[in-house]
Design a protein that fits this description.
The protein is built from 11 helices and 8 strands. By secondary structure, it is α+β, with helices and mostly antiparallel strands. Helix 1 crosses helix 2 (13-38) and helix 3 (64-80) crosses helix 7 (170-198).
Length: 321
């Protein structure tokens, strides 16, 4: 419901309704483009039983300056007092219930800290934990703001996903994911790092990978809730399995610090202005030889954002669409 979205995103309901109205208008204009692109997706399955907030092209609703400001406040508090990590995975599990024991299309985003080994060797454990917790919380909030969900935390990396409710809305999902990645880099560079510099901490830099594909949602055991040592509730625990997960993680390794790498399917969905912010990555077939049925059996191409300045330009250009 629009009022729920307004509450979750801290904005007026009128603005939410305006974005929904604009999205419906622009959706018709994208149908021809997406219909040709969706043929590349083969038999990827779509699930429509997801919240409206995940279906919106919400770039106009996210205030990046607000995100930077409050990231600085929370980072300062974490360094001076204590970082409070209060991100719940309950919403993620509730979403995955809709896909249980089935295959569906997900847009995967993987963000990884650069030189985390160096950080672990140069910082005391308590300082390292403070930085990683604060980093994970800020990145999780940005994922949520763009309609995505954190699947899991893998050490100093975060694996997130965006649901794809229809082939026609795949364009919005890809744009939201790229905008999300751009916002992550901006919040780190303009929000988190200036505070770290004030306290003689090393700056954070990240690599981000984005790809789309069909994955399976499977149940792995149960989440047991206990009171006084007695189990009172058991919820099934779901996870996502599929080649897109591993491919996205492998793609991320090819990114330079503060660079976004996207897969060929994501690149083909962007418009010309957005594509201009990325360039093909020249990778030897001996290093990257992944073949995709969705690209005619050829090697699946990767594209990297040109540089940090162009990441900001990409965000600004996409944010005015």
């Amino acid at each position: 419901m629009s009022e729920v979205i307004a509450l979750q995103m801290d904005m007026n309901e009128e603005d939410v309704l305006r974005v929904i109205k604009e999205e419906k208008k622009s959706e018709k204009g994208r149908e021809t483009k997406i219909s040709s692109t969706s043929s590349l997706l083969g038999n990827m399955r779509i699930n429509a039983n997801i919240p409206l907030i995940s279906k919106l092209h919400i770039d106009k609703a996210v205030n990046i300056d607000y995100a930077i400001k409050y990231a600085q406040t929370r980072m300062w508090k974490a360094l001076k007092v204590k970082s409070d990590f209060d991100i719940s995975m309950e919403e993620t599990q509730n979403i995955l219930k809709n896909y249980a024991e089935s295959k569906s299309t997900f847009l995967i985003l993987y963000i990884d800290l650069v030189d985390s080994t160096r950080l672990s060797m140069t910082l005391p454990v308590n300082r390292l934990a403070t930085i990683v917790r604060a980093f994970s919380q800020e990145m999780s909030l940005i994922v949520s703001a763009y309609g995505g969900y954190v699947l899991k935390y893998i050490g100093d990396a975060i694996l997130a996903f965006f649901t794809v409710d229809s082939a026609d809305n795949l364009n919005s999902r890809c744009i939201n994911a790229v905008l999300c990645a751009s916002s992550m880099i901006k919040v780190i560079c303009q929000g988190i790092n200036p505070i770290l510099n004030q306290y003689d901490y090393p700056e954070l830099r990240v690599r981000i990978g984005i790809d789309v594909g069909e994955n399976a949602v499977v149940q792995f055991g149960w989440d047991t809730h206990t009171v006084d040592g007695k189990a009172i509730l058991r919820d099934p625990h779901f996870d996502i399995l599929g080649y897109t997960i591993s491919i996205t993680a492998k793609m991320t390794a090819f990114a330079n610090p503060d660079q976004i790498v996207i897969g060929q399917l994501v690149y083909q969905i962007l418009d010309d202005d957005q594509k201009s912010m990325f360039k093909p990555l020249p990778i030897s077939p001996q290093i990257w030889n992944y073949l995709s049925d969705n690209t005619g059996g050829g090697i699946y191409r990767l594209y990297g954002s040109i540089n940090k300045r162009d990441v900001d330009s990409a965000y600004d250009a996409m944010n005015t669409k």
